[in-house]
Specification:
Blueprint (H helix, E strand, L loop, with lengths): L1 H10 L5 E9 L2 E9 L2 E6 L6 H4 L6 E6 L1 H13 L3 E10 L8 H10 L3 E9 L6 E9 L11
Parallel strand pairs: 5-6
Antiparallel strand pairs: 1-2, 1-5, 3-4, 6-7
């Protein structure tokens, strides 16, 4: 997940998303790798001075979307490697928590994610250094993390 985190931090203030591949057996989900997928990522910063102040505004809108056809290509390649699609992982840049939003849960259900990850991190506005970060994985429609790396 280190590669994912590096890319997510470079994409700040936009969300970044990848596909999780692995194996599923006897109710266990094993995440073996994440792969990039072409996606669009937008944030409406409104009149905020920086992204962290946006979260205090009610109308903030983040989105991170990919095409179903691109996911199908990744699934076919994964099958050839003996892997399956297990979910998605995306970033919450500048956000103080990685609790799934309603949109996160809806997307996970729509994508048929078995699990989804959220990497939240904050940057110091003056230095650009990461001041806090957290990565958790969730089952769709739950707010309780299933793993705390």
């Amino acid at each position: 997940m280190d590669r994912f985190k590096r890319i997510a931090r470079r994409r700040y203030p936009l969300e970044y998303l990848e596909i999780l591949l692995g194996r599923v057996s006897e109710g266990a989900i094993e995440i073996l790798k994440s792969v990039p997928i072409p996606h669009t990522s937008t944030v409406d910063l409104a009149d905020a001075k920086d992204i962290s102040s946006c979260f205090q505004d009610a109308g903030i809108n983040f989105s991170c979307d990919f095409k179903d056809a691109d996911l199908e290509v990744i699934k076919l390649k994964a099958e050839k490697e003996g892997l399956v699609f297990v979910g998605t992982i995306h970033s919450h840049p500048g956000y103080p928590t990685n609790i799934p939003s309603e949109t996160d849960n809806e997307s996970a259900l729509s994508n048929q994610d078995r699990v989804f990850g959220i990497y939240s991190f904050q940057k110091n506005g003056k230095t650009g250094r990461i001041t806090a970060s957290k990565l958790c994985f969730y089952l769709p429609q739950t707010a309780v993390p299933i793993q705390k790396p």
